[in-house]
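Q:
Got a chain?
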Amino acid sequence: MRMRDADKISLVRQKAIELIATHGLEGFSMNKLAKACGISVATLYIYYKDRDDLILKIAVEEGNIMGAAMIVGFDPEMSLEEGLRKQWENRCNYSMKNPKTSLFFEQLRSSSYQEEFLASFLKEFKSVVGKFMHNIIERGEIERMPFEVYWSVAFAPLYNLIRFHNEGKSKGGRPFKLTDEVLWLTFDFVIKALKK
């Protein structure tokens, strides 16, 4: 039996993310991945059972990395504004440093992989953010609301800005580059919308 090669696994993960981010799940195959890595298809099957296993394992690994990045320096005892600002900072930094991985996750979110992907890394993250939500509601900083409403108001504007930045244009095709000024101006509107 052949030994696992950490560098090869890292290359496979990187190339799989790039291929899925660029061509989507429907344009992704083990053959294309092997070719992009300069290895045989048989080598992929040493590390992964099949295409689904490969995608899910990569999603879980990268999801754990992203989940950890989102809570760096974040404390569930923070105020609404302080905690949400830290979340925006962390999410923006992660997305800007990992644009291909962000696109990879977008592909997964609209696929049959979504449930397993989200369940894998959200445990610790949900616990920390759940405590934060509980605290800001108990302190009367925001109204009690369904999580989906909170998330849509709190984070959808951020992810739209990041999407515009990654595409290099906003709605209507105007050139767009995310600046700190635009980021924090948007954040200020979000805070105004959420605060009691």
Observations:
- DSSP finds ten helices and no strands in the chain.
- The chain has a mean pLDDT of 91.
- The two ends are 62 Å apart (CA to CA).
- The CA atoms of residues 92 and 177 lie 13 Å apart.
